[in-house]
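To start, an entry.
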Amino acid sequence: MADFDAAPDIDLEHLGVHRSVSTVFPPEELIETLEDLPVTVSLVEDEDHNDTDCEAIVTFEHREWFADLEWVHSVQAGVDRFPMDVFEREGVVLTNSTGIHDRTVGETVAGYLLAFSRRLHRHVANQQRREWTQPDWDEAFTLPGTTACVVGTGTLGQGVAEVAGSLGVSVRGVRRTPEDVPGFDDIYTTDALLEAVSGVDFVVSTLPLTDETRGLLDAAVFEAMDEDAYVVNVGRGPVVDEAALIDALEANKVAGAALDVFETEPLSSDSPLWAMDEVIVTPHSAAFTVDYYRDIAGLVRENVRRLEAGEAFTNRVV
């Protein structure tokens, strides 16, 4: 097993930037930002990977040939797409981008909450139909006095708590252990999840995908929620049982949902979620920001510095 407290044994001369990062920013922007590093930094395409001599790569997606490298950096916090067992067996160091998405995801979630409370999503939909339709007198509300249950109190959850809390939302958190976390008014443990989601206005998942979290938000959770509460998922799609959520929405057991991630992406065009009035669908973009590449550059730059100094990597996963 790798010693995360020790410096990785990597002789780094060439750092590649995989074309797949173009999903979130132009790879050229990252390459230019890192051009002052004491190593070569260049774009790597799939078709010419056999000709590249890079020892490390920054990437959005996984490729089988990454197992031949020494270091892989994921531009996302989630790493469920990478084969941990293969990387560990082959001695590949995997780092992720935990810690940079707190504010962006927090503001996205705040946007969802404001859309639901001020009925903005309905106004946008009505605009597309050129319909002048005002909400019923008792539809709109303000956020102060509402409560959100954030399932997952890591970087993303703390970002949600900070931004939503500044809008007057009381925030309770759900985590494996009962220790207090800054920004949360109350903490519940995972085995008290049904109690935690009861009596709140919003249930927000910021969880990564693991064997333990897959399908965690299921029919029992939706049954325990109030009928006027909303589901928000900005973590990983399979954490929410999508079929159970659709059933709950169709049966009016929950008021609506804002979903940035899904069990299968892109979301199928025949999914009923697209047509539901009280569902907001966004294309896995909660963390997008013009500064994304700068944030990634900061993490990569720090680990290159640590490598030169003989120090342990930050954000090491494998």
Summary: The chain is about 30% helix and 15% strand. The CA atoms of residues 97 and 134 lie 43 Å apart. The radius of gyration is 21 Å. The mean pLDDT is 97.
